[in-house]
Amino acid sequence: MGQAYKIFGMAVKPHYLAIATLLGTFGGAAYFTGGGSSTDNSNKIAIDEKVNQTDVSSENIDVEKLLDNLLKDSNEEKK
Fold first, then answer.
1. Which residues cross the membrane (predicted)?
2. What Cα–Cα distance (Å) separates residue 35 from each residue in 3, 22, 31, 32, 39?
């Protein structure tokens, strides 16, 4: 039948221990690095305001202009 470890009075096969170790390691890493919801929504709000300030009703949206404005604003905030 093979070797088994006694854990809490029960015989546990080595491959069950290996599977449990892998699941615990990767499951724990995924749980703790999951991100979740962030309480800092200031960046999202700033981007939403910039989009609302531009003329979105026109058929052509100037993406380069939007990116330039966003980069200028972010550089001003860092200073």
1. 15-34
2. 41, 21, 9, 8, 11
